[in-house]
Amino acid sequence: VSLQQFSALTEVLFRFLTEPKEVERFLAQLSDFATMNKISLGPLKNIVKSILLVPNGALKRNLSSEQVKADFIALGLSEEKASYFAEQWKVNSPTLTRLAVGQTLMINQLIDMEWKFGVTAGSSELEKVGSIFLQLKLVIKKGSQLENVYVELTLPQFYSFLHEMERVKTSLESFS
Amino acid sequence: QLVSALHNLTRHVVYHGLTKAEDILSLFPESFHQNLKNLLTKIILENISAWRNEAQASQISLPRLVDMDWRVDIKTSSDSIIRMAVPTCLLQLKIQEDAALCGNNPVVSALTVELSKETLDTMLEGLGRIRDQLSAVANK
């Protein structure tokens, strides 16, 4: 496999790694590559599978690009091609790492928040009220389902909630 | 009959938000005993703000926030990455269901939510906007 073909294949691979949901596109690009270079698809798929093992293992163990390059050379790839792959790896690793972290388990993840506030005008007990309320709708991911939680807060509660959240932000920032 | 009449009187006063003695006095019929009228008015006036607050507290509403707690964790590893140091926030909200529906046994449920730093930043932006809108309304 020439260097040009290898770099085209690497491009296809990295595009798939950075967008793991685009499976169909990946398979289509693979079969285009196979026909263009007159390689049969079956063996190509096997080769791709083994190539993909390297970045996946590297991601798990936070390997640097030199280590990725050394791995490929140990697997029998030429120096040139291994360097090329390692370069691509360096460029793409922030995106890939972010994706992997995003896949990490999150309990009851907050997805979205909507709000409205208004004034209570009257009720069956009090003819004229005039108190301000704030209603929050939190969209939470429980397992694979989304659940909506509605909460009402009074103004003082809202201000202390805001204050607490700002403290959380300071805390999170000191750890990044 | 007496209790029921008293109840109606106090409800009427609370509902209409009567705060002046004259308004309350004018509710009594002409032939009502003078001293009793004054005594009742005095007692009602003393209690009126407490009654109004209680009525407001037991209004129908969406579930209300009663308490909140938070903690910050650092995720050090997972099945997708063996070593990392990602801070995350766990927020626990204690929510009480509609007071009017629960009567004397309010049901408080605890909801724990996890937020990443990005989610927290977005949330703070939203909360900031709420605060700005609230001050705009208050200053009108």
From TrEMBL, chain A:
Pfam assignment, any one: COMM_domain
A single MF term (Gene Ontology): NF-kappaB binding
Organism: Tachuris rubrigastra
Chain's gene name: Commd7
InterPro entries assigned: COMM, COMMD4/6/7/8, COMMD7
Record-given protein name: COMD7 protein
Gene Ontology annotations of biological process type: negative regulation of DNA-templated transcription; tumor necrosis factor-mediated signaling pathway
Taxonomy of the source species: Eukaryota, Metazoa, Chordata, Craniata, Vertebrata
COMM domain sequence ranges: 109-176
Automatic annotation (TrEMBL), chain B:
Residue ranges constituting the COMM domain according to the UniProt record: 64-138
InterPro entries reported for this sequence: COMM, COMMD9, COMMD9_N
Pfam families xref list: COMM_domain (PF07258), COMMD9_HN (PF20923)
Transmembrane segments: none
CDD domains per record: Commd9
Protein name: COMD9 protein
